[in-house]
Structure formats: C-alpha cells, structure tokens
Amino acid sequence: MYSNLLFLGAIALAAINNVDGFAFKETYPDPGVIPTAKPEWLALLKDANIAKAPVLKVTPGIGPGPVPATDTYCDWTFTGCFGKEDLYQCPKGQWAPTYDDGPSEFSGKLYDELDKTNTKATFFMVGGQVVKFPELTLRAYKAGHELAMHTWSHNYMTSLTNEQIVAELKWNELAIKEVTGVSPRFFRPPYGDIDNRVRDVAKALGFSAVIWTHDTNDWSLTENPNFKASWIDGNVTKWASEAATATSGGVSLEHDLYNVTVDAAVRVLPTFLKSFKVTTVGDCNKQASYKEVAGPGAGSNTTTSSASAAPGSSSAASGKSSSASASASVTAQPQTEKNGAGVLTSGVFGVGMASVLALVLSS
C-alpha cells in the first residue's frame, strides 16, 4: 500500500546480486522495473477471453483513472467490487493475516514470532525481493507459510497492458519457483488495484486474486508522520472485540518490508491468536496454495484460537478503498489519499532517490 516511490526507495537499497549468494539459473529483470514477457508466456493468452477494460493512466498522488463512465469492469479501486473468483475473507471464526512487499531484511523477525506459536501465514512476495532474499523466501516456504505473488515491480495493474500483466506475474512466479520448487496460485494486485481485464489475464495464467477485508493501515507508519503505531493495535483489538457477532472471518493486510511494520505485526499477532483460528488464505478457502498442490504451504494450519468467536466485518469488506477501510477502526487515522498515499510510477525511480533512501533508513 506504499507509494511506489517509497517502495522503490526501499528496494533500491539492494545490490544487483542477492544477499545470500544463491545461484539463480535465470537472469531476472531489474527490481522495480516493469519487465518484458517471454514469448511462451504470451502464448498462454491466445485462446483467453479477456475483458476489454481500458488501460488506465496513473496520476501521481492519486492513482489510476479516470473512472470509466459506463462500465467499471468490476474495478476494485473505483467501486470496491470483488470478482466472483476473488478471495478476500475466511469463514466465521477464522482469520488469515497476510503480509505484503517482502521478503526483506526484517522478515526474519516476523518468521521467528510465527515459529514460536506454530502459526502459518500468507506472504505476498515481490519478485525483486525474492531474488534479493532467496534464503528468507526458502525459509518461509519450509516453515509451512503460504507463498503468494505481489507482482514483479509493484505497479498499478490496471495501468498495465495485457502483455505487461503477464510479465509481472510470470517473472514473480518464476523467481519463487526457482527458489522453492513450487508455483504460487495466488497473487495480490498492488494497492488492491484490479478489474476484470486483470482478472482474466491472471486466470489464463492459472492465478487467482486475493484482496482483503481488514486493513491494519500499517503502511501509514512510513508515509504519514502523524500516524501512531498504537492505532494499529486499536484496529486489531476492535476486530477481536467484534468476533462474537461477526458473520464471517477476515483477511488482514500487513507488510514486512520495513522494521516498523514488522514490529507492529509481531505486536498484534497475539491478539489474533487469542480470538481466532489463525490460518492461511488457501486453507480457509479450501484451495491449494500452489499449482503443484503438494508442499508444506498447502497443508493444514494447526494453530487454534482460545475462543470460538468469529472476526468482525470492516468497511473494506463492503468494497471501500484501502484508506477508507480504516473507518472500521475507532482509532486509526490514516492518510486520506486513495489506496495508501500518492503513487509515482517506476519511471521516476531516479528522482529524489537520496531523500527516499534517507527516509527508508530512518524508518
């Protein structure tokens, strides 16, 4: 949910080579840059029935637009519309915490905390981060966490051509498979930005979209100097208090790219565990995590809650944008810009990088 400039600033701290010395066979695109698809990947679209939704323009600080006048093509950014095959919640009594944008140098601390309680979670990994941190990627997989995709360059997907969408997903998939031996089935569009065109392209490649019902707003910790970390705790505490009367379970949005967001994730995990059966998106929706089906991440999560209550609903479940979903919380006060603050495309990667890196290092 971070602005793309801030996200690119974080990954710019990486060297070209991965930090673990893992020997990749494939030569991967530069991190943070929209890649080019291989011809054999594009061939997968040959017989696909793809919606004719327009390729949208991204306005810095606002996001994709303009809003289509007649048909929004079930665009989540504009209408909060969920596609009929989108995954975004769990059954009553279950909760799937999900972590975006990693792995990062801070992810190990979150893995440690999850290991202590034998808790399995879903990680939406960015392709360039997988290439930088292959050992952390492999650790998460071997621990039984569900590995999913968050595209290669973290751009608004409705602003990409069909061919670029293919490249974003397939390079992401390839990096994870080269490290773990498995191909994720699930992807999360950056900023939740998806319409039927994106869904159709992804489906032709064998992927299913995952959104969320509850936003912790942890992304505001690095984007809004007035945002207080305690508001995240307030959000999660409120969701737990609503568990007894909720009609369905939840999927929460968190991040493991920054130290402050990992600290928040570690801090609120016990609240989730006390109130819900904590599980993965695939498990709570009874779907395989990987195209190969088998694998530690495809198994059942044995973590159980100390209560039989179910999570509460949030405004995000009814289709609000990420920043609007904070209205489900009594205390959270994130920025009001759509989908997690202003967004700049990767084309401005070099602009103001020194200040961006300074911000990242101070986080």
TrEMBL record:
Keywords: Hydrolase, Metal-binding, Signal. Residues 93-286 form the NodB homology domain. GO terms for cellular component: membrane. PROSITE patterns: NODB (PS51677). Residues 292-321 are annotated as: Disordered. SUPFAM superfamilies: Glycoside hydrolase/deacetylase (SSF88713). Residues 299-321 have a biased composition (Low complexity). The keyword Hydrolase applies. Residues 1-21 form the signal peptide. GO terms for molecular function: chitin deacetylase activity; metal ion binding. One of its GO terms (biological process) is carbohydrate metabolic process. This is NodB homology domain-containing protein. It comes from Absidia glauca.
